[in-house]
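Handoff note, outgoing to incoming analyst
You'll be picking up this chain. Sequence as last confirmed:
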Amino acid sequence: MNAYAFDEIHIGHTESFEICITKEKMDSFLRITGDINPMHLDSQYAKKSGFESRIVYGMLSASFLSTFAGVYLPGKFCLLHEVALKFSNPVYVGDTLKITGRVSEKQEAYQQITIKMIIERIQREGGGGGIYV
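Most recent structure output, in case you need it:
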């Protein structure tokens, strides 16, 4: 776990990590949320809707923004204030995601930073957004 203090962070500061989306992660997310949408549970249903297979919950992918902020940047001293999301492309079970964030703003008065995030599938983008900590 990183522990960047506000004065150690600069505009352009970048961190990233990778994580594989497993069936177990999908099953855990289902148990936590109760989201039984067949797009996430039934491969045949998802294929009939034009997807390769059942699609990963968008909010499961987005949940790794919390991991990013709380573990990587800024890490230990993080208090998440706001998240803005855009889901551009589907993610599938078995995909490895690369979560990257770059500091785009630093507000001295509030001791607050803005991080531009991107979540990428290996060889294809899966979504993006920003977080404010």
